[in-house]
Amino acid sequence: MLKTASIPRLFTAEYRTLSQIRGPLVFIERIVGVAYNEIVEVEGPDGEVRLGQVLDVDQQRCMVRIFTGTSGLDLQRTRVRFTGDVARLGVSLSMLGRALNGAGVPIDGGPPIAPEQMLDINGLPINPSMRAQPSEFIQTGVSAIDGLNTLTRGQKLPIFSGAGLPANELAAQIASHASMTGSGGDEPFAVIFAAIGITQRETSFFMDQFRASDTMDRTLLFINRADDPSIERILTPRAAFTAAEYLAFTHNRHVLVILTDMTNYCEALREIAAASEEVPGRRGYPGYMYSDLSSLYERSGRIRGKSGSVTQLIILTMPDDDITHPIPDLTGYITEGQIALNRDLHRKGIYPPIDVLPSLSRLMNAGIGERKTRADHRSLADQLYAFYAEGRDLRRLVAIIGEAALSIEDRRVLEFTNRFEETFVGQGTSSREIAQTLDAAWELLATMPPDLLKRIPREFIEQYHKRS
Amino acid sequence: MNKSQHASGRIVRIAGPVVRASGLENVRLYDVALVGEAGLVGEVIRLSEGLTTIQVYEDTSGIRIGEPVSNIGYPLAAQLGPGLLGQVYDGLQRPLNLLAQYGDGFIERGVQASPLPLEKRWHFTPRAAEGDLVEPGEIIGAVNESRTIEHRIMMPPNQRGRVVQIREGEFAVDEIAAIVKSEEGNELEVTLTQRWPVRQPRPVWTRLAPNEPMMTGTRIIDAFFPIAKGGSAIIPGGFGTGKTITEHSLARWAEADVVVYVGCGERGNEMTEVLEEFPKLEDPRTGAKLMERTVLIANTSNMPVAAREASIYTGITIAEYYRDMGYNALMLADSTSRWGEALREISGRLEEMPGEEGYPAYLAARLAEFYERAGRVHCLAGRDDKPEADARSGSVSIVGAVSPPGGDFSEPVTQNSMRVASTFWALDYNLSRRRHFPAINWTNSYSLYNFKEWFEREAADDWNDLTKAAMALLQREVELLEIVQLVGPDALAEPERAMLATARMLREDFLQQSSFHEVDRYCAIGKSYWMLKTIMEFHRLAQAALESDIRLERILSLSVVPQIARMKEFPAQSAEADIQELAARVRQEFSTMGVN
Q1: What is the distance in angstroms between the Cα of B110 and the nearest Cα belonging to chain A?
Q2: pTM for this structure?
Q3: A98 & A226 share domain
Q4: Exposed, middle or buried: residue A200 (CB in 10 Å: 0-12, 13-18, 19+)?
Q5: CB distance A125–B489 less than 8 Å?
Q6: What is the per-residue pLDDT for B589?
Q7: pLDDT digits (tens, 9 = 90+) for A97-145
Q8: In a domain, A318, yes or no
């Protein structure tokens, strides 16, 4: 539960000096000794206590953002108490299996969580020299990811989705598969699911998925629904990562954090920036959005000497499918790659509709190869990419000049491209072991003469290539 | 410098990393201040009557109005001396390895440690004798810092005098190795270490024009867009286009004596890759481990934003320090856009009038100042009127990655950097999506340096003709591909289709280079030359064959064609001979068809 550490105090100064309420912000006058980022309790005339945070403070007044909405507050009767502490989340192992709201308060009807520790939800940066390189392969069962954009433990990988594309289905599938099988099978695993401004329908979808996959007792949910206060969305991912770091680095779990949908988080950030009259950056988002997002995304990884890890799967909706929109753009600059979903593939009925060309996993090389996946993995992936990219170009050409004008070689590539989408990417909801994925890739290459396999060393061609 | 403290100020306002204090006296712009009870390090960035504005390098959460502020009395400075190499620092030069003792893997606020190892003793060999007159920057002795780098102990740039005491022996960095009596009669104690304010360029005797390229082992750079020793380059590109991998490649294989790698607002896991890999990899020229020539500055994106702004200056100051010893230093900054954003954020908190896209109006000036710290110089005491043995020159080269939003190069950081950097390696989404790496676009990129003579002397007589012809062929391919897009490949004549085939060879078998392939990741200039030579020879012979009415299909089915694709994998030690042999086979196969 989000609260402040109880510091014994004789008395707490209480102010009734609100001078302004503006959107999510309130201004309090004639204050003494207020700290930056301090958490405040604001009690409205209705007696409801709301939490807020100091965003700017000088000798006379301070600006506070209220997480749970300002409706019902007034200038005369509203009382403000400064707690003297930053926002903290009470964490304990008993959180697993629970559902909390976006600020960390149980909403599943269960008892309050008895905290083992009270942790600052902003966390601290991991010392770069203490990080261990993510190098353990996570099998997701999805060929387009395992084969071409491999996920590793400690990585942060977003799924760039568009409105109406099945990103949630894919995330749920990955979560249940990655936690059940593969290298994660016998090691302590946990899933933290942070829902940020998602709809009731999406919420129940995820709940059903988690229940169906029998992982509920290893899952912790933070749920901020679309109709919950938007400013609370600022807290939700922070609370989720605080719990994730605690489980990973205190209790040695491999934690998979799923965030959906970061677009809603960024909207909340913009709302506050606009209310506090900051100079807007691109498309009205604040200039510090990069720093703010990185303070979340960088809370993943492995630490030397600790066996746990935090892996992130971040779902965001690209407004108008635009990958250059500030939200996917800044995310892509921070995360270690991205999985991009494609509307055309989705329309063709291909599931998962992953467009591998703009997709990327930066940590793939460390997680694949001999003793991890297979020695031919890297070059095989490169070869598939090269042919598929060529095939996509050829399609455009065919649209103009017709297929008959192509050379035999080009026609082979084109045919490869179609089969690649239909069978390799479009595997449906079934899961593939990594060996099946790689074999499926060699199957696709069977129609190609070995001389064209320029990206693959000869020994692998001899070992795996079957000519048809 | 005045080290007395003036603890007199009180905090009156806090907005993120910007803190305002009243009551501070004798403050100068850019002085370091300690903020709050926790003593967080900050820097004075604005002065107005009675009010001092400070940017704080650590998270200001929990700091209160009314807490004390004190002024240290000198600007942010780097601690320079033996022990820098192999270290990992944050943007303020705090050694991250030592900070790891606290915080259980995380960086706690307000922790401090000495940038240089204090307990380690170095064997100091004097180069000056008692009674010698030594001038600023003059080398008075040396210690062996690593197997390849002799760390030359220099007089601080602002001090001169006569040596009254100097001795060989084992010294810790802060022990007195020599005593120098200045003209005014003051005794200066010279240790192995000196401090230098990071925002101030270290002085030099004269600046020289760059005269030779710095080989990088990356074919497209060395052959077409070389960077000078003492030059500057920028690599702009959207995410996923390979900025970081190119920078890592340069850090590994570039022909520099010392590499300072600044991870400025980038990913933590990428720094880890460098940290785990560099102690294992060998420098192909010296055989020493790469870590022994590298200083890492890791100010990842989630570390405080103001320290990110400082990290660039800390890095360049360390590079200049090694330049002053007479080395070729290379400073890599990944990414300068994050530095620009730090400027923007601080500027926004100061409520300054925003310029283009919210960046402050002084962005262009700051970028220019930074890139101008690159250069080849005669070192302070190594001027050219001295006997040859004493003359000393060194260089600092800067390669800055730029991360333009949406990959759009028209944004302010890219545009302002382009105006001051002499080499431009434009990374291209389309190339990276088809996994053409390095995704440096050969039609947009440029290098303003002219090293024709050097290449003729060091690589081959026909180097310039060869690269010119290859580039012309690649340009021709762009035009031809446009035609193909419109009307299909059948519209082209056979010679043009042959051009497309050889241009593709150039792209796939020469320009593409894998940073992960054990052999291909580093390509010496001799190997590059013979690869290019073989492809262009094939091109010439193919065109000649077409004139003798030999069909293109027959040419492309020659057995040497797939072998050309494997040239890049030829092991380095015998690559040149092997490729020459292949070139001979190319000629032979054509001559059996009657083409010479």
Answers
A1: 12
A2: 0.93
A3: yes
A4: exposed
A5: no
A6: 94
A7: 999 998 888 998 999 999 999 999 999 999 999 999 998 998 999 999 9
A8: yes
Please check whether residue A220 is in contact with residue A193, taking contact to mean a CB–CB distance below 8 angstroms.
yes
User: B164: domain CATH number?
Assistant: 2.40.50.100
Residue-wise pLDDT tens digits, B223-253: 999 999 999 999 999 988 999 999 999 999 9
The interface predicted TM-score (ipTM) is 0.89
Residue A38 scores a pLDDT above 80: yes
Are B514 and B538 in a shared domain?
A: yes
Contact flag B406-A329 (C-beta cutoff 8 Å): yes
Interatomic CA distance for residues A239 and A100, integer angstroms = 10
Distance from CA of B407 to the nearest CA of A (A): 8
Residues of chain B with pLDDT under 50: 1-4, 6
User: Taking CB atoms and an 8 Å limit, are B357 and A378 in contact across chains?
Assistant: no
Is B526 among the domain residues? yes
Whether the per-residue pLDDT at A5 is higher than 50: the answer is no
Would you call B74 an interface residue with chain A, using a CB distance cutoff of 8 Å? no
How far is A454 from A406, CA to CA, in rounded Å? 21
Give the count of domains, chain A.
3
Domain hosting residue A414, numbered range: 377-464
In a domain, B471, yes or no: yes
Cα gap B199→A350, rounded to integer Å: 56
CA-CA-CA-CA torsion for A267, A273, A279, A283, nearest 10 degrees? 10
The answer to whether residue A3 scores a pLDDT higher than 60 is: no
Of the pLDDT bands very low, low, confident and very high (cuts 50, 70, 90), residue A421 is very high
pLDDT of residue A440: 95
For residue B105, CA distances in Å to A303, A401, B270, B389 come to 6, 60, 17, 49
Q: Which residue of B has its CA nearest to A339?
A: B240
| Segment 294-313 of chain B within 8 Å of chain A by CB | 298, 300-303, 305
B186 and B246 fall within a common domain: no
- The phi, psi pair for A150, rounded to 5°, reads -60, 135
| pLDDT per residue as tens digits for the range B320-350 | 999 999 999 999 999 899 999 889 888 888 8
Give the count of beta carbons closer than 10 Å to the beta carbon of residue B326.
19
| Dihedral pair phi/psi, residue B227, rounded to 5° | -105, 145
Q: How far is CA B318 from CA B77, B82, B259, B268, B396, in A?
A: 10, 11, 10, 22, 10
